[in-house]
Amino acid sequence: MLKAIIRIGLLGALLLGNFPIIAQSLGHSTDSHDASIAYTQGWQAIMDYGQYTQSEVYFREALAHDPDFLLAACQVARLSKDSLERVQLLDQVQAGLGSVPADEQALLANFVELMILTNLRESSTATQAEISAQAQKALRLAEENLRGLVRKYKDEVYYISEYIEVINYNHGPQAALDTLADMDHTRLLNAVPFLMGYRAQLYADLGKTAKADEYLYQLKQAVPTDVPKYYVVAGILNEKEARWAQARTYVERALELDPGNIDAQRLQLRLDGKR
User: Fold this and answer.
1) C-alpha separations of 258 from 162, 255, 270 in Å
2) Could you tell me how far CA 224 lies from the centroid of its own chain?
3) Residue 190 DSSP code
4) How many other CB atoms are there within 10 angstroms of residue 66's CB atom?
5) pLDDT of amino acid 1
6) Which of 55, 188, 196, 247 could crosslink 239 through cysteines, CB 3.0-4.6 Å?
7) Is pLDDT of 11 > 80?
8) Share of the chain above pLDDT 70, in %
């Protein structure tokens, strides 16, 4: 039996702090409006603000409102540090795929492959070949499924953001920028802090420092000063320019604001031993 589908339209966009949550239009298969709101807040927290810890709180809140809300279950599993919980949530999602509409199934299928990848990476018995094969499978499926979804649901900015990340992983920074430029809703996408920061990183990867700095400045103006996002991106850009001391300063600030920020943790590991 299909659950009720809740849609949060653009005209009914939420307001969190001083930045509006860009609305979701794909629809959430849940009977709980509160679960749908918390789910959207979770995406904004992690993507636009870099608040991994707060994002997990929101996704868990969504799941508490509706324990059968599969999209929320996926995100809790992606963030959970409990391997047993991840396995249980993965089983729940796979068992419930047939209960949601086809487009939502496609999205869930992407998340399932990513959860499998996470579990393999933490397995003591998985080989590097198995991990690499699963990563390639997950990225291929994500590109295929997200391509159709982002063309159909043009205000799904966080899924669009994940699609651009996948294009970068699969085809490189220029292809990611070209894909973003080809979308016919650029004005909406230009207002998304995550994409400001990601554009900065893509231009930096191409050696276009001036453009990277331009988008970094836009990001700084768009997000509050007490969230990690700007500091993480600034740290990454400084790392790319081999400015190790400056990069460390930014990453330390990001981790002060959210010790659970995975991007900052990874950057800190890369900076270890740099002089």
Assistant:
1) 21, 5, 18
2) 19
3) T
4) 24
5) 40
6) 247
7) no
8) 90
Residue 15 phi/psi, 5-degree rounding, is -125, 120
State whether residue 59 is helix, strand or coil: helix
> What stretch of H or E contains 181?
helix 173-182
Q: How far is CA 56 from the centre of its chain?
A: 12
**DSSP secondary structure letter of residue 22:** P
By C-alpha distance, which of 222, 219, 255, 256 is closest to 234? 219
- Secondary structure, 3-state, 62-96: HHHHCCCCHHHHHHHHHHCCCHHHHHHHHHHHHHH
| CA–CA dist 144, 128 (Å, integer) | 24
Q: What is the dihedral angle through the alpha carbons of 254, 135, 57, 66, rounded to the nearest 10 degrees?
A: 160
Cβ(204)–Cβ(240) below 8 Å = yes
* Confidence (pTM): 0.89
Q: How far apart are CA 85 and CA 233, in angstroms?
A: 31
Q: What is the pLDDT of residues 31-85, one digit of tens each?
A: 999 999 999 999 999 999 999 999 999 999 999 999 999 999 999 999 999 989 9
Q: Please check whether residue 66 is in contact with residue 50, taking contact to mean a CB–CB distance below 8 angstroms.
A: no
Question: Measuring CA to CA, which residue among 241, 180, 245, 242 is closest to residue 208?
Answer: 241
**99-147 pLDDT per residue, tens:** 999 999 999 999 999 989 988 998 889 999 999 999 999 999 999 999 9
Residue 159 near residue 27 (C-beta atoms within 8 A): no
